[in-house]
Amino acid sequence: MTTFVLQFLSGLMGAMFLFLLASGLSLIFGVSRVINISHGAFYTLGAYWLVGLTRQSSLDLWAFILVAVVGSILIGCLGALLEMTILRRVYRGGMLIVALVTFGFLVLIEEIVKIVFGAELTSAPRPRGLEGGISVMGTSMPSYNLALIVVGFLIALLVWLAVEKTRFGLLIRAASIDRETLGMLGTDVPRVYTLTFALGSALAGLAGILAAPMVSVSPSMGSAIIIETFAVVVIGGLGSLPGSLLGALIVGQAQAFGILLLPESTLLLLYVLMAVILVIRPSGLLGERQA
Question: What's the CA gap between 196 and 278, in Å, rounded?
Fold first, then answer.
């Protein structure tokens, strides 16, 4: 029973990182209908942002929060800059061209990170005050891990409120349904694209910042995580924010218990799960059926 609880909590923690990545990816796809492979690059930049600022010593909790907020904003601005200067020029080339361009950006960021930080594995220290553990059914669970589960659900709630209850969220939903009509009503649709790309990039950067004290940080970490992220959005449904959360929870738990039950076939289990769901519902669990 103790092992089950610990694996369940581990799955929830993994799901929080995947949701932050998948929600941003899903928002971008819902508005612009492009597959943004460069999403993994912003995750990598977030992790190395924290690594670079904690090389000398760990941060206290409030400094860590400030660093996470500032880093997310800066990475969001970089995402907006990429959309305005490069992607906006290649949208008309179709989804394949955009995918190739964003893949090129991912490779470029990985090479820049190798030059600046080196190719070896590294990590960031946990914030002071969250280094210890909390007893869960007689087993010590790191405080930082448990805090991330709570923070992840809070961020999920904030993102949902932003999309469902604000004017910007209304514009995002309208652009995902009928961009041409939205433009005819006087809305600056390219600006909505840019702001959505900035929000998605900021969420990916935040995921990298929060993951840095938990995982081995490397220049190729974005390429590795983007596969799992695509699995999440495909399972949950492209363009669906609730679907991203549901898909992240499913994938997180599948990975946690897959490592326990089938340690050599965890990735295969993920692909099988994705295939089964797509056979039953091709648009994803909460995705809208396409004509």
Answer: 27
Strand partners of residue 136: 139
pTM: 0.89
Cα 168 from Cα 175, distance rounded (Å) = 10
Instruction: List the chain domain ranges.
Output: 19-219
Q: What one-character DSSP code corresponds to residue 185?
A: T
Distance (Å, rounded) from C-alpha 250 to C-alpha 258?
12
- In the three-class reduction of DSSP (H, G, I as helix; E, B as strand; rest coil), residue 133 is classed as strand
Residues 6 or more apart whose Cβ sits within 8 Å of residue 227? none
**C-alpha pair distances (Å), 20 with each of 67, 107, 269:** 17, 21, 22
Residue among 160, 129, 136 at smallest CA distance from 62 = 129
**Tens place of pLDDT for every residue, the chain, 291 residues?**
567 777 788 888 888 888 888 888 888 887 877 788 888 999 999 999 999 998 878 889 899 999 999 999 999 999 999 999 999 888 888 888 888 899 999 999 999 999 999 888 888 988 988 877 777 666 677 788 888 888 888 888 888 888 888 888 888 888 877 778 878 878 888 888 899 999 999 999 999 999 999 888 999 998 888 888 888 888 888 777 888 888 888 888 888 887 777 766 667 777 888 888 888 888 788 776 554
What count of other Cβ atoms lies within 10 Å of the Cβ of residue 89? 10
> What is the spatial distance between Cα 268 and Cα 198, in angstroms, rounded to a whole number?
33
Q: 252 Cβ partners below 8 Å, 6+ apart? A: 11, 12, 13, 14, 15, 16, 18
Closest of 128, 177, 179, 159 to residue 244, by C-alpha: 159
Interatomic CA distance for residues 85 and 96, integer angstroms: 18
